[in-house]
Design goal:
With 349 residues, this protein is an alpha/beta fold. Helix 1 links the parallel strand 3 and strand 4. The protein is globular. The protein starts with a strand and ends in a 15-residue tail after the last helix.
């Protein structure tokens, strides 16, 4: 396993990062099996583990805490804050009030005294970014976190956060965690260049495009929309939808490419993401030991220029074959007041 420095933090992390979203009820709820998978990943050279408080409402963090007993010093541990945790008000978001409570809860569940990378899971437009950066800076000074980053932030909000950090003398986002895959390359146009400009580490999630790049779903073959991930988001898999048909066309071409270079489609997909100069690590999220072993087997895969050129022909740089923000749409797309002037002001004369 190779290692890269996470932005300019000086922290060395493995190019594969173990994502633990699958370690919860409804995915893999066998805690002992999850611990074995985590240990196998560490034994395979991975030193970077990513989780979030909202994965199973804390269950994933608890599993990670169990797995890291006796191995904590060797692991770069990342988690996130933002989503609703339990019932009641003020138990979500990016406010000082909630982050101070959430970080203590995460530290307890993870059975650790510090978090290496604490990430804001989503933007929160009800909270001033200065408020969020201020409390995160305080947590660094207190030694409870070593660095902080953002997840799912558009380029313009990353830039805004850096400007606020500079003006107010606050700590800044050291990393970003965007969605990135062969089928969702939109971040190449703005997010990745911005991260490079600010010297931020980048750990990308969903390199297998929510399962589309596993090779399980093929063109002209029936897709069971009642089971697995397809049951969670049927509109994402229904081949009758033109966007999905385009994804399936791309998958067929990518499978041919993978076979021609002697690898599996998932191995090709992950290798593609870590070939970009802005990307530090790709988050792999296995549910089973077999899935982990298959992905680790492809860790040494190097895509040459010919392979990357062929991928560019199938899905051009900066192009999305589906809408990657559908699950977390920005406020600019969901708040109609930001898209429409008051009716009395809409006419030109």
């Amino acid at each position: 396993m190779r290692y890269r420095t996470l932005g300019r933090t000086g922290i060395e992390v493995s190019v594969h990062c173990l994502g633990t979203m699958m370690f919860q009820d409804g995915c893999n709820s066998d805690h002992d099996d999850c611990v074995r998978i985590i240990h196998a990943a560490l034994d395979g050279g991975i030193n970077f583990v990513d989780t979030a408080d909202m994965y199973g409402l804390g269950e994933s963090e608890e599993i990670v805490g169990k797995a890291l007993r006796g191995r904590r010093d060797d692991v770069v541990l990342a988690t996130k804050v933002h989503h609703q945790m339990g019932e009641g008000r003020n138990r979500s978001g990016n406010s000082r009030r909630w982050i101070l409570k959430a970080v203590e809860d995460s530290l307890r569940r993870l059975n650790t005294d510090w978090i290496d990378l604490y990430q804001v899971h989503l933007p929160d437009h009800s909270t001033d970014i200065e408020e969020t950066l201020g409390v995160l800076s305080d947590l660094v000074r207190q030694g409870k976190i070593r660095a902080f980053g953002c997840s799912n932030f558009p380029a313009e909000e990353i830039v805004e956060a850096h400007h606020v950090s500079e003006r107010r003398g606050l700590g800044r986002f050291r990393s970003a965690q965007p969605r990135y895959s062969i089928l969702a390359r939109g971040i190449e146009a703005s997010v990745l260049p911005v991260c490079e400009r600010y010297g931020m580490g980048v750990l990308v999630w969903s390199p297998l495009a929510f399962g589309f790049l596993t090779g399980k779903h093929r063109k002209d073959r029936p897709i069971d929309l009642a089971t697995g991930r397809a049951a969670l988001r049927p509109a994402f898999f229904d081949p009758a939808i033109a966007e999905n048909a385009a994804k399936l066309d791309a998958v067929e071409q990518l499978i041919e490419l993978a076979e021609s270079i002697g690898c599996t489609l998932p191995q090709l997909a992950v290798a593609f993401t870590v070939a970009h100069p802005a990307v530090t690590s790709a988050i792999i999220g296995p549910r089973t030991m077999q899935q982990l072993e298959d992905l680790l087997e492809g860790a040494a895969l190097t895509l040459d220029d010919a392979a990357l050129d062929r991928i560019d022909e199938i899905v051009p740089a900066g192009i999305n074959r589906y809408n990657p923000v559908a699950s977390v749409p920005p406020r600019s797309l969901t708040d109609t007041s930001l898209q429409r002037r008051p009716q009395a002001e809409r006419a030109a004369a």
